[in-house]
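Ticket #4471: structure export looks truncated?
Reporter: QA, pipeline team
Priority: medium

Steps to reproduce: submit the single chain below to the structure queue and open the exported record.
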Amino acid sequence: MASIEEVDPPKKQTKQKRGPPPLVKYYLVLYNILSALGWSYVLLTTLVHLFDLDGAHSAGTPLHAWLARIPYLPAVRKALAHGSTAAGLPAWAVPVVRRAGSAYARVGPQTAFVQSWAALEVLHVLFGWVRSPLGTTLIQVGSRLYLVWGVAYQFPQTHTNPLYASMVLSWSLTEVVRYTFYACNLLGSEPAVLLFLRYTLFYVLYPTGASSEALLIHATIPYPGLGLGHGFGAEALHTYVRQALFLVWWPGLYVMYTHMMKQRRKVFGGAGRTLGAKPKSL
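Actual output as written to the record:
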């Protein structure tokens, strides 16, 4: 639900259609490149942590030794071991899930920092530099900021929840493709691979990302859980707000999911469009 999307698929540029002024265009290209790099760092760091690629949780190997020399890849904290996470999982997945429980300690501050820069996208809309609706942008950017600052930062129980790792992986994979695609589009290029990924990955990443977000919100709701038994006051009010958000997250996922399916059909023009070709009706 918190995925940030443009309202329409990219349209074919014509000589009659004016693009942004040169300085604005260069700024937007730089913004998208830096955002793609930031999310690439978050993605790489999360994968290194989950799969122990820097050897922090296992005996060293030549690959581990090589990765350990890469700047900004320090050893992560010791993964939390919870016996219940092993139930029903294949042997190879058990250590991954356990390390997912300490992903916040490794990438939490970095994720919050990179995500916070998305607030600039609201200004981009206000200044008329991009063609996304203001209301949609506010909701999408605001929901992401609420998750990193109002949920993950405020509630320590989310710091050891493996769903934080699945949320960050879904976000970072989506954003690396999205920002790279936008940068290329501003430069007059539309790589077929990026176009395909841009309008295909959501089939998997929307459900994994949105469900992780909703369940993280639910994890912050104290006993007795959903309901009106939390009393009164500011803290109780925030609890009721989180309950409401948890309930609306699921229909919100459906709306965004079906919206992107429609966008994909517009971009690819049904079965008749080949990758890299321009949409027939746009």
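Status: closed, not a bug. The export was complete when the record was re-opened. Leaving a note from the reviewer for reference: The longest helix spans residues 234-268.
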